[in-house]
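SAMPLE LOG
Freezer: B-3
Tube label: C17
Construct: single chain, 378 aa
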Amino acid sequence: MTATVTRTEAGRRDGGRRLVDRVARVRELGIVVALGLLFGVTGAVNPSFLTYASLRDILLNSAIVAMLAVGQTLVVITRNVDLSVSSVVGLSAFGGALVLADHPGVPIPVVIAGCVVLGALCGAVNGLLVGAAKVPALVATLGTLYAFRGIDFAWAGGRQVNAADMPEGFLSLGARSVLGVPLLALVALVVLLVVGWMLGNLRAGRELYAIGSNPEAAVLAGIRVRRRIVAAFVANGALAGLAGVMWAARFGTVDATVATGKELDVVAAVVVGGVAIFGGSGTVYGAALGALLLTGITSALAVLRVDALAQTAINGALLLAAIVLDRVLALRVAAALRRRRFHDPAEPDDRAEPDDRANPADPAYRADPASGRTADGS
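STRUCTURE (predicted):
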């Protein structure tokens, strides 16, 4: 009877844990549902929102934010954040556009590679400050946000690179489509799939989650925490450099103010997409969906002629709701783990035969109650 009750209680605990796990996994599905409602309602009010031109613009705009969100996810799951991504985008966008304008003979792939390397170097600076020098990520990247932007302004010297100054072959990258899908969106999709696979299947990816879940335990487990954190910032910077190239190809006009303030949109997309701001959980797929949702909201508000200030309020509300949801899920998971910790020690007794169990009523039961050993050692 006792064994049956114990197994029943264990089944209930397992069911509760599975429910919590399912709730955590379907967050991305919730974003998909929100996207469906957003496009459905807005399209019903204003059918022009669902035209090919409108959807194409949404994909182009969300591709850049999604690229940045994928890189930011690598950093956030390690319990860090990179606020300098907008300045890295601006620096790489202006640098690439300037090289193409002043040296039109330079191959476009070389310019793209150079922007990626420039972004990676900026990411390495952040990584060394956070991973090696142990400067809090919020402070370090806030400082480099202004430092990189200052370098951009000094480099530009008030100059603006226009579309007429850049090769047509480069500008066509921002307008070209493959089977009706914008090329930039396909590039972002490929990056998303590659990074998502690496996080889920490679040891390095799983170690990033381990670091975010418990940095001290990760050190004890032999994970090279500093190296992984630096690598995450370098990868994030490289993707920001690639996003800078995409920005230049998309808009054509580039100056030192490119992407100013975009870091807040990126962080909001990551958190809304289900990546825990305290690290250890979340996926790049959710972050990309978050970017698509926020970009869709921006376009929907413009179509519905809603004041632009409302967009900031809505993004803030979504960010707060996502943080609250993350906290609720974390508390539920912690409670489930505590219940498991308290109840699991009794499970080995359930597998023993009733006659072999120690009897607490026996006077000899005093030396080692857990094992049933009597005072005389029998």
